[in-house]
């Protein structure tokens, strides 16, 4: 979200430093002075890049480029910027394909991931997470004229398309689907509409946004997962950043910012 301020003289300089950090590499400052927080937050504030955040940039409406301006935007992008503003640090987005995004985190090319990362036991064993900022069910999506799938058990023997390392891939595979690996939602939905696969499993919010933009898509929700996905920022296991993010998210929940961002993209609060 872009927020404009009307300020004068030296006050403007102080506010700008607080929001964007210092290009010279000195600590970013907020309206109360030098950034205070965990060791990793202070280190990020002293960097010219600030917090380096991995995101796809092709996952509408969560992380994508606005067609009119080509600027990176989306629900996850706006939430990340709001958190960074609350923490008083600059944020730099690094666009990475989903299947390589955890490798980028492991290799320390990025500080965290903001890309609707679902908290799972397997991921929790290896990574640290913030409190969730999105709660949404997973769904099976088929063509509108295909009624052969009515439950997750009906995926057995069917062909789906999923990102190789996504939790949706694992869910489809657990129910006996023949899973075709794809780079993301756009490729999966194209294969579905071409009749080359039977279904795809994904986030319900992604489908609702797609149908809003493509009212003649002729798709249907064949089944809904029992337990909704809880999605959060992902960090390296030894990162001290999660506690900083949790404090910021709690404040943004309390002041209505998360609800406002949610309604901008989905028409309702999906943050909890």
Layout of helices and strands, plus pairs?
Elements (H helix, E strand, L loop, with lengths): L8 H12 L8 E2 L2 E2 L4 H7 L5 E5 L8 E2 L6 E2 L1 H13 L3 E5 L2 H9 L5 E7 L2 H6 E3 L4 E3 L1 E6 L15 E5 L3 H8 L3 E5 L2 H9 L6 E4 H10 L5 E6 L4 E8 L4 H14 L2 H10 L6
Helix pairs in contact: 3-9, 3-10
Structural notes for this entry:
Helices cover 36% and strands 24% of the residues. By secondary structure, the protein is α+β, with helices and mostly antiparallel strands. It folds into two domains: 125 residues, D-Maltodextrin-Binding Protein, domain 2 (3-Layer(aba) Sandwich); 87 residues, D-Maltodextrin-Binding Protein, domain 2, CATH 3.40.190. The strands form five sheets. Strands 3, 6, 7, 8, 9 and 15 form a six-stranded mixed beta sheet that branches. α6 links the parallel β11 and β12. α3 crosses α9 and α3 packs antiparallel against α10. The two termini are 20 Å apart.
